[in-house]
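Deliverable D5.2: sample structural annotation.
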Amino acid sequence: METTIDIVEADVTHFGEDDDPETFIGDEIEYDLGIGEDPPGEEIPEGPPTPPEPPSLLPAVHLAPTLKVLRDEINARWPKRDRASDGWIGDAAHQKSKSDHNPDADNRSVNALDVDKDGIDPSLVIRKCIAHPSTEYVIYNRTIWSRSRSFKSARYTGSNPHDKHLHVSVGHSATRERSTRGWGIANAAVPKLGDRTLTKGCTGSDVRELQNLANKLGAKLVVDGDLGAKTDAWIRSFQKSKKLAVDGVVGLKTIAALRAATTPAVPISQPAKAKPGSRTLRRGMTGEDVSFVQRWIGERRCGKPNGEFNPQTEAGVRWYQRMQGLADDGIVGPLTWGKMRVKVTY
C-alpha cells in the first residue's frame, strides 16, 4: 500500500545527499567554531527496541520531535533568517536512495534537517548540535562532525559540499528521536569582537561585528560572519592605511583602530588629578583615574599606563567588562568601578 505524504513544498529538501555520509569522512582538519566550544554530548542510551507498528497504526510522516525542538530554537533566535535552503523530507531523488531525509519504515520519522546558513551563526549551531546527545552527525561547508569520530572535524568528501545549508542527522532510536531536551541555541552566549584573535577562515558573530564596522568605513562586505577572502583583503588594506602590521590578523591593535575610526571621540574637559571612582570615564578623557584603570586591567590589554583613555584602553575596558559579566560599552561607570573594588563617590 502506498503512503500519501502531505508535506508542503517548504519542507522538501532538494539537495542531493550521499547514500552513506559516514563513508565520506576524510582527513581530520582544524575548524574554528569560535570560543567556548561545547564538549560532545553523551549519546542517549538506546533502550529496548520499539516493536514496529502495524501499517494501519503507523503515524503520519513527521520530522523527529528532537529536530522540531532544534528548528524552533533556531527560528526563535533568528526569526528573520533566510529559509530558502531549509528542508527535511526528501524529494523524489532522495526517495530512490538511502537517506536520513526519508521516513523510517517503523515509525515514519524523518531524522534529518537542513538549515539555510544565511541569517544564522552556523558555528554556534554546530557547537550546540555536537553537544546534544541525539545528534549523529553534522555536515557543513565540506566538513563533517560525526559521533563515530567523537565529533572531531574532518574533511567531507561527498558530492554535496553543504555550503548553502548545514545538515543535522539524529540517531534512529526512539529515545533519541523523541528527546525534548533543549539544544541551548535560543539564549546561548556568542563571541563579541575582541574576545579572540580573528584570522582568515574564522566564522561567528564577532566576524559579523567586524564586517559591520568595516561597512561603516565603506567596505561594502557581505555580513555573513565568514572571514573569507574579501574580508581578509579589506582588513589588510585597513591595516596598511593605519600603519599597522599588514598580516590580516585582527588583534587588539586592529580592533582599537577600527573602533577609533568608527566612533568619533567626544572632547571633554576634565581634571588632571581626578581620583578613581570620582567620575565616569570614556574615550577621550585623561587623568590619574585613567592610569588606575589601565594598571588594573593590565598593559597587555590597555598598553602602558599614560593617563589617556585612548582606543586601546577602551578595547581593554570592553574586554574587562565582558569578563565581569557587564555590558561591554567601553565606559567606566559605577558598575565597572565596583568590579575594580573602587568606592564610587559621585
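Annotation notes: The radius of gyration is 25 Å. The chain has three domains: 9-177, 191-262, 267-346.
The annotation will be released with the project's public dataset once the embargo ends.
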